[in-house]
Amino acid sequence: MLVPACFEMDFHDDVIYEQLVPAHGSQGRLSMYRRNITDVAQPPALWKRFQQALSDEASNAVLAKIIKEDPMLAASVLRSANTASILMRTPVNDVGRAMARLGQSMVRNIVAQHAFSGVHKNHQTPEYSTDSLWKHGMAVSAIAEVIAQYIPHCDRDEAATLGLFHDIGRMGLNVIPEFSVAANLNLAQGHLQYEVDRFACTHIEMGQLLAEHWQLPEKIMQAMAYHHHPAYAELGDIPETIRGEVFAVYLADILAIHFGFTCGDAGIVLPHASFSELLPNISLDELAHDKRIHTELGLIQAMAF
Length: 305
Known about the structure:
The structure is a single chain. This protein has 15 helices and 2 strands. It folds into 2 domains: 5-42 and 128-302, Hypothetical protein af1432; 44-115, no CATH class. By secondary structure, it is mainly α. It is globular and about 50 Å long. The longest helix is centred in the C-terminal third of the chain and has 19 residues, at 240-258.
């Protein structure tokens, strides 16, 4: 298979597959799961207020005031900021200063992890590690925000948000272990078919059910449906309104897996060659050496939930 120059990269010991086979679940089973997740906790009102404040370009002081309404969330932000400060030996004791140290994007991720943590409570034998899922989502979010600036007409905030939530369907699969059956991963087909064999649906479909339940933005829900398309479809198969964001997240997913932030994927599938036109001025290899990405990933790796 001829790989476009912009996708060439030294993947070391990564597993590279030529394709991912698309798969779809049973509509009857999905209807049952839709009813099953109605008792999954809704995010607190603080989440929506924080998101609205970000959209309104609120100051760190305003955002910090919202965070401090939840002492456990404030403690989590401070803990993460002090983890980031270890090498500087300058403890952070104020949420506002913690936000300045971490940056609004990283704090948004911490707030999301805290707000949506209720999805996995009372489930003792999850299919996927919840901590690994959040760290993977945070890594993809951080990388996608950097990549977005190189993709024409790509909204970096939307790419970062999609990156954070792109795999929430796997959290949903953790909620329904009683409906699972034994299945084996066929490496020639990939993880989507494995999920259908095991749960009669994919994490994409489950993710859309959760996104609907949580009333996430429509554009994020739509993009979630397409986030694996670059593995097996051409550029034109993705709606133009979300094409850039989906591609940014897809590349970010590849790099997150490459750097060890994995959870559920059997290997890496490079995008269809037609997507190369969306990356005209930089290569995947150059992105892999971006210092901003490595700084963010170092912080995420050090986080403890």
